[in-house]
Design brief:
Radius of gyration: 20 Å
Order of helices and strands: EHEHEHEHHHHEH
CATH architecture: 3-Layer(aba) Sandwich
Number of strands: 5
Oligomer: single chain
């Protein structure tokens, strides 16, 4: 039997198109490499572009994100609270965009790494010549494999701590919830939300049929 022209039409996909995602990191080494390795772990590195835009202040990063959002479905800014003076301004700027989401760590990315070793709500603040980040890094260096950890080094920390990741993802939301409830965000992090997004992205989403 001869096939009609209609029979050659491709059936509609039952899955939603995979979104394009941009992640802009504050630092160009440790945090950026961690997220690159995380995207590979969840097998979404083809869909996710992870970059450092040259800016290290929150407002500059969010401004860059907004300028590039037209080419992406989701844009994340992974930033540290630290002592940035334009931090609140950056958050308000991000609220004006439906695509841009800010992933903040208080006081810095290293708190996420520290959570791999257990629940922690000890605030970190500058003391003497040490910044809050300095003190967090010193706390990290007591653990095996992290004795020489440095913010500017590429140590493959994601793989080093991978066996602890599941527990960290369980702990981090509880820490964040407590921080929000107490209105004391130091310390806390939203990194788990970005990894949750990666995991969801790794599973194609089915189209909801119209009733």
């Amino acid at each position: 039997m001869a096939r009609t022209a209609a029979s050659f039409n491709r059936p509609k996909s039952s899955f939603k198109p995979q979104p394009k995602v941009l992640v802009i990191c504050e630092d160009s080494k440790s945090g950026k490499r961690y997220l690159e390795d995380a995207s590979k772990h969840f097998r979404v590195n083809i869909l996710v572009e992870i970059t450092h835009c040259g800016n290290t202040d929150p407002k500059g990063i969010v401004t860059e994100a907004i300028s590039r959002q037209g080419k992406f479905d989701h844009v994340f800014c992974a930033i540290d609270r630290d002592t940035h003076k334009n931090f609140d301004e950056a958050l308000n700027l991000a609220k004006n965009s439906k695509k841009v989401e800010v992933i903040v760590s208080f006081p810095c990315f290293e708190f996420w790494l520290l959570l791999h070793f257990g629940y922690n709500r000890k605030p970190y603040a500058a003391a003497g010549k040490n910044s809050a980040a300095d003190l967090l890094i010193k706390a990290l260096r007591i653990y095996p494999g992290l004795e020489k950890y440095d913010k500017g080094e590429d140590m493959g920390v994601f793989q080093l701590l991978l066996s602890r990741l599941a527990e960290t993802r369980r702990i981090a939301p509880k820490v964040l919830a407590e921080a929000i409830a107490s209105e004391q965000m130091n310390p806390s992090t939203r990194l788990h939300e970005l990894l949750d997004f990666f995991e969801k992205l790794s599973s194609p989403q089915q189209v909801t049929p119209k009733l």
